[in-house]
Design a protein that fits this description.
The complex is a heterotrimer of chains A (199), B (198) and C (198). Chain A is α+β, with helices and mostly antiparallel strands. Chain A is built from four helices and five strands, in the order αβββββααα. In chain B, 58% of the residues are buried. The chains are: A alpha+beta (199), B mainly alpha (198), C mainly alpha (198).
Chain lengths: 199, 198, 198
């Protein structure tokens, strides 16, 4: 009986000490890890959709800013500011679109002075290779640069985006999400400016 | 000095994965580049050394019947520490090594040294043993990684070696190339060892 | 991940796991015991059976732990520890169960059963299930198919090795070295399947 007690005591002691040490390390590394994940996974997209900046939009990100309510639901976005010479010029944030095979993660960049799109990048998706997956190609995403709010639509609906041939669902899913991003931006622009500081 | 001997034997005589044929999985998988080999080697060395030290410290307290479970708990804890630190400060390496970071916990070298050495020897010797085998492993991985990278991609540690006109021998950085390269290296080491002994 | 998988999606997953991205020859998981147990057909088949059993069960149980314990309690960073302890405990229980209920099978498997705890393929598959965001059904299918792929590669390899041992091999290449080269060639032939999926 003593043997079993000893085994249990030793195992428990090691587990407890390990648990304490690890939760400490976890707490200490939580923030650096979050920054690294942002930098390497979303980072490239953020930097690609913003233009005319000389700061580090990722380092200056504002996490989970509550912008307001839309359709009864709160709108919360993590914002990446683009600044030139210290002045706020653009903002990037993520939206989700509905594709053919599931949700599509999209990073949208907006010019705060002209209220136009500076860029769009598809970050995550499960679309069909050769069809919907072509949303990640320059020939598709470059169409979004510089568009005014009412130009964000498929060409057969009066907009300026040509859909990917054979992938209408994916194309309209992406366009819909980007349009929604622009609407959110226009609706909550003053909140965004306040959160990021125009300086 | 015995401690020095314990350290140096891991560097050649007993070098993993060639002489001490353990830890093959990461060896084959992450040596597509010299950086990868070096990174994995150092991470493994950290876990191996720390676990050896802790096991040696606790060797008289751990009951025989649950010793393997205890070793695993200790090793796994250090692996989690490495995982978290790597994500926080070396994210590109973490992305490259992928599932092989948590897999350090089943790297037979670590459990092997804990059972065969650290459970029976003093702390300082175990430290030397862990450090020696770890650094030997690191050297092996880095060299293998460098060879595969140079011939398979024309670069070393990311820097171009042969210039832009080099046609890489892509076989080297694919799975079959890993097996073949390691096998040939092992054969070569056997020749060298036989030469020394005879 | 796809919203709803069709039968052909599952079929592709199975073919992928067994042939294209063979857990052992392409993903490099489970190599240590692989080279050790592939010299005789009996030991190879014994190991293969044990792996199929443990890997499938381990994949399922670790998925349940991840989904119902680690995620709700925000303890994902402890995944490595929990998973390896689950596997070690599972192997322990399987050993005791087989010893009592199927002694013949227990004898046949011999020392390979406890060795499965450190088989990186088992932990590897468990981690892959989580990283690929598989559903419960996808986890079962992938774990089982991967295990079959492992056993398949192992048995195939042993057959080749047994033939090789009978023929003349230079002394410095004997044993593990030639084993690795053979594995490389086998891996190359599996590469031919790469065009089937994706």
């Amino acid at each position: 009986m003593r043997e079993i007690t000893r085994m249990i005591v030793v195992l428990t002691a090691i587990s407890v000490v390990s648990g304490l040490v690890l939760s400490f390390v976890d707490r200490y590394t939580k923030e650096p890890i979050e920054y690294q994940r942002l930098k390497f996974i979303k980072g490239p997209a953020v930097l690609a959709v913003l233009s005319g900046y000389d700061n580090d939009p990722i380092k200056e990100y504002k996490k989970n800013v509550v912008l307001g309510k839309k359709g009864g639901k709160p709108v919360v976005k993590t914002l990446f500011p683009g600044r030139k010479n210290g002045k706020l010029t653009g903002v990037a944030f993520e939206v989700t679109g509905q594709g053919y095979h599931g949700s599509i993660g999209i990073m949208v960049g907006i010019d705060l002075i002209n209220n136009t799109l500076t860029g769009m990048r598809v970050m995550t998706h499960s679309e069909t290779p050769g069809l919907g997956a072509r949303a990640v190609e320059p020939s598709f995403y470059e169409q979004f640069s510089g568009l005014k709010p009412d130009e964000i639509a498929l060409s057969d609906k009066g907009g300026k985006i040509n859909a990917i041939s054979g992938a209408t669902m994916t194309s309209s899913g992406v366009v819909g999400a980007v349009k929604q991003a622009m609407e959110l931006y226009l609706l909550f622009k003053d909140k965004i400016l306040k959160a990021l500081g125009t300086g | 000095m015995k401690v020095l001997q314990d350290f140096t034997k891991g560097l050649w005589q007993d070098i993993p994965p060639f002489r001490l044929v353990l830890g093959l999985c990461p060896t084959l998988a992450v040596t597509t580049s010299a950086d990868g080999g070096l990174g994995m080697g150092l991470a493994t060395t950290f876990v191996l050394t720390c676990s050896n030290v802790l096991v040696a410290l606790l060797r008289n307290l751990i009951p025989r019947k649950v010793r393997i479970a205890c070793y695993i708990l200790v090793i796994a804890s250090f692996v989690v520490i490495v995982e978290l630190l790597m994500q926080a400060f070396f994210y590109p390496l973490y992305m490259f090594l992928g599932i092989f970071v948590p897999l350090i916990v089943v790297n037979c070298i670590i459990l092997g040294r804990a059972e065969a050495f650290a459970s029976k020897r003093p702390v300082l010797n175990s430290l030397a043993d862990g450090l020696g085998h770890g650094l030997g492993f690191t050297m092996a991985l880095t060299v293998l990684g460098a060879i595969r990278e140079v011939f398979g991609a024309g670069t070393i540690f990311g820097h171009s070696v042969f210039g832009p006109n080099f046609a890489p021998f892509a076989f080297m950085v694919k799975p079959p190339g890993a097996f073949v390269c390691l096998g040939l290296m092992l054969g070569a080491m056997n020749i060298v060892s036989r030469g020394k002994v005879d | 991940m796809h919203e709803a998988w069709t039968f052909s999606d599952y079929l592709l997953l199975v073919i992928g796991a067994i042939l294209v991205k063979n857990i052992l020859l392409t993903r490099f998981l489970g190599n240590c015991p692989f080279l050790g147990t592939s010299r005789r057909m009996e030991t190879a088949t014994g190991m293969a059976m044990a792996v199929v059993f443990v890997m499938t069960l381990a994949g399922v149980i670790t998925w349940l732990v991840q989904t119902y314990v680690l995620v709700p309690l925000h303890l994902e960073y402890l995944q490595t520890i929990f998973f390896i302890l689950v596997i070690a405990a599972l192997v322990q229980f399987v050993e005791m169960f087989l010893q009592k209920s199927f002694p013949a099978l227990y004898q046949a498997l011999g020392i390979f059963l406890p060795l499965i705890t450190t088989n990186c393929a088992v932990l590897g598959v468990a981690v892959i299930n989580v990283r690929e965001d598989f559903s419960f059904l996808q986890t079962i299918v992938f774990s089982f198919a991967s295990a079959i792929g492992y056993g398949f590669a192992l048995v195939l390899f042993t057959g080749i090795r047994e033939q090789l041992e009978a023929s003349g091999i230079p002394g410095f290449m004997k044993g593990t070295a030639i084993g690795l080269l053979t594995a490389g060639l086998l891996s190359l032939s599996f590469f031919g399947f790469a065009g089937m999926v994706d």
